[in-house]
Amino acid sequence: MITAIDRLALDALAEEKVDHRFKGLPPDAAGLTVGELAAQRRDLYDGGFITPVLTLSAEAVEHNLRSLERFTSRHGMALAPHGKTTMAPQLFRRQLEYGAWGITLAVPHQLRVARAFGVRRVFLANELVDPAALAWLARELNDDPEFRCVCYVDSVAGVALMDEALRRAGARRPLDVTVELGVPGGRSGVRDAAAAGAVADAVRDAATLRLVGVAGYEGEVPGADAASVRAWLAGLTALAVEFDKAGRFGSLPEIIVSAGGSAWFDVVAEEFARMPDLSRPVLRLLRSGAYVSHDDGHYHKITPFNRVPREGSLLPAFRLWAQVVSRPEPSLALVNAGKRDLAYDLGMPQVQAIRQADGTVRGSRGLRVTRLADQHAFLAAAEGAEDETPDVGDWVALGMSHPCTIFEKWPLIPLVAGDGTVIDYIRTFF
After folding, report:
1. Distance (Å, rounded) from C-alpha 318 to C-alpha 399?
2. Residue 286 CB-half CA count within 13 A
3. Of these four, 73, 197, 216, 370, which has the most CB atoms within 10 Å of its CB?
């Protein structure tokens, strides 16, 4: 069930003019609207696109949406996918259509984007103490009775700052908050149950806030492995039980218990299932984000579906096409995509395929990216595999790691069907 999204705002994206702001698009499309260009259903390879150009596989995106929806449904969890990964309202819409409870975000800018496109349920997985941002949020809550925002709190000082800012802004209904549980040596979040209780007491005394649950992010457990993640999750669910017994949740209709990135959602599902019944229904909320595009590196290695393949699978949806512009040595080729275009914070791009001038696509045996410059990637052939080195003019398909960084570099991304037809364009807002 789709919660809410402004279809008129989404439709307006198709009215944006194609111009120099958008990398990789056909120069002869300048002046067309995005919708007009999409309606032409151009071929990626002979439709005038210029390299480098990042693409998303339409089939892989749909497969991934379906796969995680089935996983969460099977395990009785709700999904609030992390929107910071894509910052693409068109993908927010697809996630909501696949049953997402809402969208997770991290900072006020991202929240403003979601609200501009009518998202009515947001989980802000971060502390928020900025007075200007809180004043804006108070106005949003005042103006839209159907809008719900749930935010982290992790300190008495932070609660006091929030309460003061919301009171000054004239908030007419409380902001829902969850106490964030952290871990020593990790990121934000209270470090123990005593600190959590003190924060909960501060929320109780703040008329502008309402405690609705507990939450955190298991990916910040130092040296995270299955055992340490399970232990942290056991602490999170125990905190929910303790708060419930102490009556800290008041008369809420449900209690939120939330965790889960893209690396341990199988363990999250198992530990959430072990949580004893509370005094009212529990919304077990998973917040994975990278799943929608997956990748060819980091998440390909660590996805929980590697451990539990019977539960589903994810497909890498990204492919960046670059062109060989120089072959200065027999075993070295340089392509026209570099640090400005490629994600490299979690590993070098991987060579996936070569498309030769005659349209033939071949494999990339023995080729690897050895280093990046601002606008070039260095492709080296292994010893004895010099014949694999692509020729000047060939297109090279690169797979990458870390969806958050990939999306960030491209404001308009062609969505490509399996036959190479560009069927839509995904707008990002970073």
Report:
1. 7
2. 31
3. 216
Q: Pairing between strand 209-215 and 255-259?
A: parallel
Return all residues near 104 (Cβ < 8 A) that are at least 6 apart: 80, 81, 82, 83, 84, 122, 123, 124, 125, 287, 289
Residue 384's pLDDT is 85
Strand-pair partners of 285 = 78, 258
17 DSSP 8-state letter? B
**Using an 8 Å Cβ cutoff, are 302 and 347 in contact?**
no
Is pLDDT at 324 greater than 50 in this prediction?
yes
Would you say 363 and 353 are in contact if contact means Cβ atoms under 8 Å apart? yes
Band of residue 2 on the pLDDT scale cut at 50, 70, 90: low
Res. 3: pLDDT tops 80: no
> What does the block give as tokens for 390?
């692509």
d(CA 13, CA 15): 5
**What value does the mean pLDDT of the chain take?**
97
Where residue 252 falls among pLDDT bands split at 50, 70, 90?
Answer: very high
